[in-house]
Amino acid sequence: MAERTMIEAINMALGRALADDPDVILFGEDIGIDGGVFRATDGLIQRYGSARVRDTPLSETVIAGMAVGAAAHGLHPVAEIQFMGFLYSAIDQLTNHAARLRNRTRGRLTCPLVLRAPYGGGIRAPEHHSESMEAMLAHIPGLRVVIPGSPARAYGLLLAAIRDPDPVVFLEPKRLYRATSETVEDNGQALPIEQAVTLRNGTDVTLISWGAMLTETGAAADQLEAQGISAEVIDLSSLKPLDRAKFRTSVEKTGRCVIVHEAPLTAGLGAEIAADLAEHCLTSLLAPIRRVTGSDTVMPYPRLEAHYMPSTERIRQAVHDVMEYA
Amino acid sequence: MSTFTLPDLGEGLQDAEIVTWHVGVGDHVIADQPLLSVETDKAVVEVPAPFSGTITRLVADEGAIVKIGAPLVEIDIGKATDAGAIVGDLAKSPAAPPPKPLRTGTGARATPAVRRLAVDMGVDLASLTGTGPGEAVTSADVEAAATGLTAGQVLSGVRRSMARAMARAHASVVPATVTERSDISGWDSGEDVTTRLIHAIATGCYAEPALNAWFDGQRRQLHDNVDLAIAVDTPEGLFTPVLRDAGHAADLGPAIAALKRSVEDRSIAPDAMKGATFTLSNFGMLGGEFAALVVTPPQVAILGAGRITDTVHADNGQPVVHRTLPLSLTFDHRAATGGEAARFLSAVREDLERPKRDARE
Amino acid sequence: MPDPLAYLDATGAALGDLPGFAQDGEILRALYKAMVRTRTFDAKAIALQRTGRLGTYASSLGQEAISVGVASAMTEADVFLPSFREHGGQLWRGVSLKELFLYWGGDERGNDFAKARQDFPVCIPVASQFPHAAGVALAIQQKGERGVAVALGGDGATSKGDFYEALNVVGAWNLPAVFLINNNQWAISVPRAEQTHAKRLADKAIGAGLPGIQVDGNDVIAVRDATERALKRARDGKGGTLIECLSYRLGDHTTADDASRYRDDAEVSPHWKAEPLIRTRNHLVAQHGWSKDDEETLLRSCRDEVEAAAERYLATVPESPRAMFDSLFASAPRDIATLAEEIDDG
User: Fold this and answer.
1) Which of A11, B34, B63, C93 has the fewest CB atoms within 10 Å, counting from its CB?
2) Beta carbon pairs, A and C, within 8 Å
3) Is C169 in Cβ contact with A59 (below 8 Å)?
4) Which residue among A76, A97, A129, A261 is the active-site one?
5) Residues A326, B116: C-beta atoms closer than 8 Å
6) Mean pLDDT to the nearest integer, A201-206
7) For B113, which of A285, A321, A324 is closest by C-beta distance?
């Protein structure tokens, strides 16, 4: 079975969704003959036609708003925002409409849409292309926010998002698009959309991360293991709703927690997780909860990018700090 | 008669000034007819009559500032009075329970888990100098203080777990102990003591379910099955593997042997040591006759079996020698009564005193 | 043909030949009844708000001909996406008076229409319904349906990107959508002249390559006629149309507004002479034998119907607090369920 990169796995899931469900429609900027700026939709217009794989005019407001209207009228739109930095004008439609249409009509009209967007830094992209603003989206009630951490998870979670009867923002860690590959079977199997996954078991400290930062987090766990510190690594996967049971159980076991995200510190998802652990697992905590995150600065241009991103060394040091508390 | 109060005009406005009355006392008004104009912080608005009737009194004058909910006008609607023109009553919140007394801090630096351990072990954090970051008190500091050790080997692993579990038990349980000797002179030579004890405990639990229970300080839960923790002593400390549904286990001997083996080679799963409803400590294999044991919450009782000895009894005034097994039952007196404990212990003794285990009807 | 398109002058006199439907007395009576019914509802809604029994409410006083005219041209296959001031169109489409009262009274069940199941609830964030209409039109096109997406917004909405961006994709993709503007001259306190330097709002269609038509929005015949033509055009696969309906907001922006702060009676009163109900009634009296009895019977039946609906609304028991969780997702995530239990316990 072939090894697939994350971008190939996403392409495969989109193709599978188009083949399985005639109501699935893809639209976005440059997703047709160009196959998307990252080639996520490469070849799909040839296979499924320009009526179902559509290049939109350059308007994020319309991409999101049209997805709401089309979803409410029976299609399953999978819309692409080219980069997360251009997603902000779509937040009006996500917050005011997609996330609340079911509720405000008491279930009469619904919004089974997926909005895909590449996010995050580390590929030396121009400004406005590298932000991690997932917490803004996770704050919106009625929305699901999903971030895959590997090619296989991207395939299964994207299918789950497309089949979900409610709106899902699917953020793709673009640094992982082509960074690694693994066996991904095009079996049409969706993964559970609300579940965090434990990537490795450990007993001394729980490391919680998602998206591209799982790379540095996993590397830190390897180094820690060599030093006799057993780290449990959780891929959060679903940023909204949170799989709180998963990380609470882990921290109750280990007594220590370090949260790693690329997004800025203040009001990031790490704050919500830390608050949850403080509320529910206080007497299990052997050490302060630590966050290793991007700084509260504007995302620097590529020359300084590496200084912004949490490094393996920073994660490892944070774990050493919390291990000081016996 | 019905009183019309200044309605909530929306958008968070709190009061309004009466600009003009459009009606006077004695006027007949019909619903939705303009009654008066009021000026709020945002707008001058006309307030209509909420229902038809005859004006009997204007409560507030022009120029007056009226708070939302204050009476404006009384209207005789010619039938029973109502509560005023409001959409409905908001449900009242239940009365708040009296506040619990506040606990003040200890002043020492320690993480929550260490504070919990200190409470469990009865250690005053303020008396310690921490060895952690920023002189924070660590769990090792607390454990050392609890055992009175200032130097020596810091507990680890199983022994540390044991120390914590025992300290927790000691902090919450109110223990009481009752003892008894059972006469086992009638046993065949091949009888296995542990097997017989397990059977007898199950019999006791069925006779007196109050001892086969969980209690968390507030709620008590009785169990149908006896999931029996069997204390196993090891050089590293105490293990308590659990024998599920001990009263109905088909072949006890091999089951017990497997449990012990899994403890000895440390292959036992953590889940296999959880969820016990009763504990057996067969300490007599090592020595000792009676003991005041430690109940492990949320369980409410533990039975100890001492060393089997020959004891002299008075039989019709004559001394006779019997083989006896000393029994010690320690129970949490918060959850079980002395009577219940005595009934349980009698049932255990009677079961043990049958010549063969399978002699039970 | 006059520009803006009009068939009746302010007195109800015909300006020329009327379109076919407007020669049918039954149709004209139905249009008039719908406008009277809308205005009766409007007055009751304001009275309920002023007595603390309804939330903030946006009156459609003086603009009844627009949404009634638009909705009367539509079929069941079409989808209506109104702003918050188009009660007349909603009522024509089958939304009930009680549902409208419930919505404006602060109860989401008012948007769970028993009829008009495909229509959108009113859109509060100005102009954001236009991209939805493009999406509905896309779904219609994709599924090969016969319908047209019909979105209606105010003059202020034309200043927003949403409006233009949606109009643009309707043009680019030749979508079956009709966008209408209720140009009532005011966006809260900002008058039309300050809203844009464009000569006509209808001209904004030029940028999207679509026809932009201006009609007398106080002439229900003109509104219906223009909408019918635009719908036919869309159904024939010829694409979208923008229709600007000229009218005037006789009332406040909403019950939370006091228009006397920014415009005086001298500005407003001439518009009372041009409002849509009088001219329609005059025309009915002159051409279709509308009598005083007819008028009184109509007013009484509208009043009785609105009163009865208001009573049913006031007697409606609020939903359980659980309702705010129950419709958020098709199946509640564990996270939501936990919070719901806390509310139950509270």
Assistant:
1) B63
2) 141
3) yes
4) A129
5) no
6) 96
7) A285
Q: Which residues in chain B show pLDDT less than 70? A: 79-107, 148-161, 164, 357-361
Calculate the average pLDDT of chain A: 96
Residues of A in contact with C162 (CB under 8 A): 61, 65, 92
Cα distances (Å, whole numbers) of residue B109 to A182, A274, A282, A283, A320:
47, 20, 15, 14, 19
Angle between helix A60-72 and C129-143 (nearest 10): 60
φ, ψ of residue B191 in degrees (nearest 5): -60, 135
DSSP letter (8 states) at residue A97: I
The residue type of A33 is: I
- Which residues from chain C sit within 8 angstroms of residue A25, using beta carbons? 138, 142
Q: Collect the ranges in chain C with pLDDT lower than 50.
A: none
The chain C residue lying nearest A59, using CA atoms, is C165
User: Which site among A27, A60, A62, A78 would you substitute to test the C interface, given the most C Cβ atoms closer than 10 Å to its Cβ?
Assistant: A62
C29, C262, C288, C303: the active-site residue: C262
Count the neighbouring beta carbons within 10 Å of the beta carbon of residue C208.
Answer: 23
Q: What are the tens digits of pLDDT across the range C231-273?
A: 999 999 999 999 999 999 999 999 999 999 999 999 999 999 9
**Residue A145 φ then ψ, to 5°:** -125, 120
B42 phi and psi, to 5 degrees?
-105, -30
Chain A residue with minimum CA distance to B139: A326
Length of chain C: 346
* CA distances in angstroms from B337 to A153, B161, B277, B334, listed in the order given: 57, 30, 17, 8
C135 CB neighbours in chain A (<8 A) are: 65-73, 77
Structure tokens belonging to residue B316 = 């019709």
- Summary mean pLDDT of chain C: 96
According to the model, what pLDDT value does residue A98 have? Answer: 98
- Are C98 and C309 within 8 A, CB to CB? yes
Query: Residue written as tokens 């990018």?
Result: A305
Q: What whole-number distance in Å separates Cα of residue A168 and Cα of residue A191?
A: 14
Residue percentage of chain C with pLDDT more than 70: 99
Tens of pLDDT along A208-259?
999 999 999 999 999 999 999 999 999 999 999 999 999 999 999 999 999 9
Q: C: neighbours with 3+ CB pairs under 8 Å?
A: A, B
The answer, yes or no, to whether ipTM is higher than 0.90 is yes
pLDDT score recorded for residue B88:
37
Rounded Cα distance between B280 and B229, Å, is 6
CA distance B136 to chain C (A): 35
CB-based contact A5:A181 (threshold 8 Å): yes
C249 among known catalytic residues: yes
Residue-wise pLDDT tens digits, C2-53:
899 999 999 999 999 999 999 999 999 999 999 999 999 999 999 999 999 9
Q: What is the pLDDT of residue B89?
A: 44
pLDDT tens digit sequence for B100-126: 655 555 467 888 888 888 888 888 888
| Cα C175 off chain centre by | 21
Neighboring chain B residues of A286 at a CB cutoff of 8 Å: 111, 113-114, 139
Q: What values do phi and psi take at B35, rounded to 5?
A: -100, -50
Helices C25-50 and C64-73 cross at an angle (nearest 10°) of: 130
C335 CB neighbours in chain A (<8 A) are 241-242, 244
Burial B147-158 (b: 16+ CB within 10 A, else e): eeeeeeeebeee
